Amino acid sequence: MRVAYSIQFANTLIVRNAQAVPMADVEQMTIPLQSKPTRFPGWSGLCCCGSLIGSWFALAFLLFLPASLHAQGLPQQVTKPQLKAAFVYNFLKFIEWPAEEENKDPIRIGLYGLSEEFGSELKKLQGKTVRSQVIEIVNLESLEDPKSLDSLKVLILNPDDEAEQSWLKEQAPKRSELLIIGEEKTVADQGGMIDFYTQRDRVRFRINRKRLEQANLEVSSKLLRLAKIVTEDSP
């Protein structure tokens, strides 16, 4: 029996062995399962549907998606930037900031030096919520403005010159309670906490656990199990 895997992502439900179905948005990304598969009208295959398993399984499922997926019946490609944005949203669910239960301020995410495609996908997270906290997306013009950085909970960047790499190595470790994510590999071993890389045409991510601890951020063991852990001698 064929069973289709499904995941809500961006504005499309990605379905294996079935056709794409428009869905709400990445906020509701889940993998639904049910012991008895249900046939939906207009679907060419079966989709497991029922109780919601949770974000961790959705995050794990993303690791099996090719970086450029164009399965039969899908109206568009699933790009690397889309997958990375989906990962970022789920990272927020598995990393906690100090006194977060009492603090319902927005989750302010700063974007700096990113590719146009990745930045565009991240902006779609504007207004979504994580643990009742609303996501706000802002563009940064510089890494040298302390006030702008002080207002952030998350900084996502792609350092491409010596000054930016120097900031990452020297200034980033001094910032507490700021989650720093890199669009590409090397950020996690230069002062950041998480970065992305591609392996066998699949998007993967690395985590620098030591840097998270230094920044007073608590990471779920579930997230760590899915990541490549960065150490001092990591390649």
Cα shape: globular
Structural class: alpha/beta
The helix-strand sequence is: EEEEEHHEEHEEHEHEEEHEHE
The quaternary state of the protein chains shown equals single chain
- The third-level CATH topology of the largest domain is Rossmann fold
How far do the termini sit from each other? 42 Å
Describe the biggest sheet? 8 strands, mixed
Q: Please indicate the count of domains.
A: 2
What percentage of amino acids are in beta strands?
15-25%
Write out the strand line-up for the largest beta sheet, numbering strands in chain order: 8-9-7-10-11-12-13-15
Mean pLDDT: 75
Helix percentage range? 10-25%
Characterize the structure shown.
The chain has 235 residues and is an alpha/beta fold. It has 2 domains: 6-62, no CATH class; 84-229, Rossmann fold. Helices cover 24% and strands 23% of the residues. It is built from 7 helices and 15 strands. The protein has helices at residues 55-62, 80-94, 116-123, 146-150, 162-170, 209-214, 221-226, and strands at 6-9, 12-15, 21-22, 32-33, 51-52, 95-96, 107-112, 129-130, 133-139, 154-157, 179-182, 194-199, 202-207, 218-219, 228-229. The strands form 4 sheets. The protein has an 8-stranded mixed β-sheet with strand order 8-9-7-10-11-12-13-15. Strands 1-2-3 form a 3-stranded antiparallel β-sheet, with helices on one face. Strands 4-5 form a two-stranded antiparallel sheet. Strand 2 (12-15) and strand 3 (21-22) form a beta hairpin. Helix 1 packs antiparallel against helix 2 and helix 2 packs across helix 3. It is globular and about 40 Å long. The termini are far apart. 31% of the residues are buried.
